[in-house]
Amino acid sequence: MGFFSAARQGRKDDTELGKGLWRRAHDRFHRGLDRFHQVLEGVEDDQLYAELVEVANSLAALLDRVRIICVEAQRRSPSEGLDIPVALSGVHRALSKAGNSLATTAEAAAMLRLAVGPIPVGAASVRRRAESVFEQVADAERHLRGDAPAAGQQDIPG
Fold it and tell me: Which of 33, 73, 79, 143 could form a disulfide with 148 if both were Cys (CB 3.0 to 4.6 A apart)?
């Protein structure tokens, strides 16, 4: 991305995401994806690389969903600071968990990259961690729609 396109994107992000809570949630997720892709650069095993690229691509597809969530949250509850709005605390919690899970997914990929010898289960541990990222992004979407139970409540099967 060139200097001018980066500046343009920064202004667009400021407008859509603000400079507070929702921007930070989005940017943290984006940095996690960047880290995962950096880990891929050092993978020498072709089969492992192919498995990790598949996971990386599916995680990268989540970025658009995370952006939509953050833009809508900013529209509903504009944030220029770090105060979490009560009405959207579930959204923020789910996005925070997704960012954390994405970081541990990248860490798991890095550990596989450093493994010595053949890896009997391939990228299974990375896929398991990636699944939690998908679940948490879906949870953020449910909270944004109002379909999720409030904090402290549990779904009770009917």
Answer: 143
